[in-house]
Amino acid sequence: MLTSDESELDVKHHSFFTTMEVAALLSPSTTSFRPHFRHPIFSTPSRPFNSPSSAALSNQLNRKKSPVLRPLHRTRKKSIIAPLPSSSDTCPPTESKPPPPPQGAKPIPLIISVAIGMVVYFFIPRAPELTPQAWQLLSIFLSTIAGLVLSPLPVGAWAFLGLTASILTNTLSFTTALSAFTNEVIWLVVISFFFARGFVKTGLGERIATYFVKWLGKSTLGLSYGLTLSEALIAPAMPSTTARAGGVFLPIIQSLSLSSGSKPGDPSKNKLGSFLVQSQFQSSGNSSALFLTAAAQNLLCLKLAEEVGVVVSNPWVSWFEAASLPAFVSLLASPLILYNLCPPEIKDTPDAPAMAAKKLELMGPVSENEWVMITTMLLAVSLWVFGDALGVSSVVAAMLGLSILLLSGVLDWNDCISEKSAWDTFVWFAVLVGMANQLSELGIVSWISNYVALSLESLSLSWPIAFVVLQGAYFSIHYLFASQTGHVGALYSAFLAMHLAAGVPGGLSALALAYNTNLFGALTHYSSGQAAVYFGGTILFWKTRFNFVKICELNIVFLWLWKQVVM
Q1: Pairing with 414, which of 234, 332, 449, 453 sits 20 to 30 Å away (CA)?
Q2: Measured CA angle at 58 (ends 54, 62), to 5 deg
Q3: Residues 143, 114: contact at Cβ < 8 Å?
Q4: pLDDT tens across 195-234, in order?
Q5: Helix, strand, or coil here: 33?
Q6: Residue 165 vs residues 141, 151, 257, 338, 445: alpha-carbon distances, Å
Q7: CA max distance for the chain
Q8: C-alpha dihedral, 189 to 231 to 543 to 538, nearest 10°
Q9: CA dihedral of residues 229, 231, 234, 236 (deg, nearest 10)
Q10: For residue 451, what is the DSSP state?
Q11: Alpha carbon distance 274, 256 (integer Å)
Q12: Cβ of 411: how many Cβ atoms within 10 Å?
C-alpha cells in the first residue's frame, strides 16, 4: 500500500514520464530510449523500450483507450515506472533533534540577580552616611555583579542592562554613565586583543614556541620548560592568556601528545598530554603576572586602583621590578613540582626536536608579515617601558602599533571587526569601570572601607595579618567565579579599600591583589578563559594537590612584595 503522500508524488512524476513516452513514440528513431531523469525516491531506473514501427504507432494513436496517452494515474498497472518501495526502504530512520535552547535570559539566574539589588534597595536600611543616589547605584551595581557570576545573559549583554538601569532610574546621567568608554586603559585592552590576533594570524607565536621545543624538547621535563619559557617570552606583546593558550600552545601540545600515543579522554593521556596541559596551564599565570601588558586584567587592576586613590608610578617598570623574582622562580619551579606530583609515563621525548625541526621546515623562512609583527611589537614594548620619559602614553603606543599593522596589511579592518571578544570586553569593561568610579565619588567605597577598618580594629589585627587574611579571602572567593576579569570588576576595588582601611601600604595592596588575580586563574578547570581552552575538550581529573603550586607561588609573591615595601 502506498501512503497518500507517496501517491500524490507518484502522480506528479507519472505525468512527467507520460510526456517522455509520447516523445519517444513520435520519434522516427528505431533505437532504444531510456529516460535520463531519475528521482531519488525510485529504487530502480525505468526499463528501456523500443520505438514501434509507423503502422504500429498509427494504430496505437487511433485506439480509444490507449494506455500510453491516458493519464498514468488511471492505469497504474501498465505504468513503466517501477512500484514505489516502502518508506522504510527509502527513508533512513531520522534521529530526533534536541529541542532548541531557550531564547533570552535564563529565568532562575535572572530572578536571583535582580532580587539581590531589589532586596538591598527596598529592605535593607540605607546607611545615614550615604545619599539615596549612592544607595540606588549600589543596588544596581550588586545586581550587575550577581549577573556576572550567575550569567543570566552573556557578560556584555548583562553589563549593558546594568548601564541602562542606571540611566533609566536617573541614578546616573547619560554622559556620566558612558564616561568610561573614553578611558585610555579600556582602549589599550581592546587593542591588545588585536595584537594577539596578529600573533596567531602570522604564525609568529607558533614559530617561537616550536623553536623552544626544538631546543629543549629531548625530555618531557625539557619539553615543558620549552613551552613555559616561550610563553613568557611572547606574553608582553601578546596580552591575552586565552589567545596564547588556544592559538599557540594547545595545538602544539595536542600534536606532541598524539605523536606519542597520548590521547585525550583516554587512559593514555597520562603518558604525556596530562602533564603538558597541567604544566602549561599552571605556568600561564606566572607569565601573565610577570608583565603588565601580559593580560587584560592587569590593566584593569591598576585602573581600578587609581579610582580608589592608589597610583603606581611608571607602571610597566614598577610592575616588572616587583614581579620578576617571584615570577621567574615560579616559572622554574612549577614544571618541576608538577613533574613529581603528576609524573608522565613517558620521560624522554627524543622525537620532539625532530618533529619541531620538520614543522619549522614546513613553515619556511620567517615571512614578511612576521618581520613586521616582530618590529611592531618591539616598538610597542619599548614605548610601554620608556613611554613616560618620552611623553608617549601606553595607549598611544598601542595605537601606533596597530596603525602599522593595518598599513602593512598584517591585519585588515575585518580582522579587527571580527574580534568579538575585544568588543564584548570593551562594553562590559567600560560599564564596570564607570560604575566603580561613581561608587568611589559617591562615597560608597570609603564607607565600606571604614566599616571594615572598625571590624579589624575590634579583632586587634595588625596590618600584616590583615594583609594575609584579606589576600587569602580574595584568592579563595574565586571558586565562585569563572572569569578573572569578572572577579576583578566585582571585588578588586572593595578589597583594595579593605586593605587601605587595615593600614596595609597602598602599593603593596594594589600589586598583590593584581598578582593574585593572575595566580587564581589556574585554581580550577573553570576559573579562567585559558582553563576553558585547556580543559574544554577533555577535562582531566582535577586533583587538589595541584593547588599547592598556586599556594607556594602566592607565598613567594607576598614575601617578595613585603621585602620591597620594608626596604
Answers
A1: 234
A2: 170
A3: yes
A4: 988 988 999 988 998 999 999 988 999 999 999 999 999 9
A5: strand
A6: 10, 17, 50, 47, 21
A7: 121
A8: 80
A9: -100
A10: H
A11: 12
A12: 24
Instruction: Compute how many other C-beta atoms are within 10 angstroms of the C-beta atom of residue 19.
Output: 9
Task: Please give the grid coordinates belonging to residue 149.
Answer: 557570576
- Interatomic CA distance for residues 72 and 20, integer angstroms: 12
Q: Are 398 and 196 in contact (CB under 8 A)?
A: no
Contacting residues for 237 by C-beta, under 8 A, at least 6 apart: 195, 199, 293, 377, 380, 381
SS3 543: coil
Q: Provide the residue type at 149 as one letter.
A: V
Q: Would you state the pLDDT for residue 387? A: 82
CA–CA gap between residue 528 and residue 521 (Å, rounded): 5
Q: How far apart are CA 299 and CA 379, in angstroms?
A: 19
CA distance 228 to 225: 5
Contact (Cβ atoms closer than 8 angstroms) between residue 554 and residue 516: yes
- Whole-number Cα distances in Å, 29 to 16, 23, 24, 54, 156: 21, 11, 8, 11, 73
Residue carrying the nine cell digits 568588543:
423
- Distance between CA atoms of 377 and 371, rounded to whole angstroms? 10
Alpha carbons 136 and 127: distance in angstroms, whole number: 12
DSSP 412-444: -HHHHHT-HHHHHHHHHHHHHHHHHHHHHHTTH
- pLDDT tens, position by position, 413-453: 999 999 888 898 889 888 888 888 888 889 887 787 778 77
DSSP-derived letter for residue 95 is P
- Count Cβ neighbours within 10 Å for each residue of 177-188 and write b for 16 or more, e otherwise: bebbbebebbbb
- Look up residue 422 and give its three cell numbers: 575585544
CA distance 241 to 257: 21
Specify burial of residue 361 (Cβ count, 10 A radius: 0-12, 13-18, 19+). exposed
Cell numbers 587569602: residue: 472
- Average pLDDT over every residue of 87-100: 58
Cβ-count burial 26-36 (b if 16+ within 10 Å, e if not): eeeeeeebebe
Q: Name 351's Cβ contacts closer than 8 Å, sequence gap at least 6.
A: 259, 260
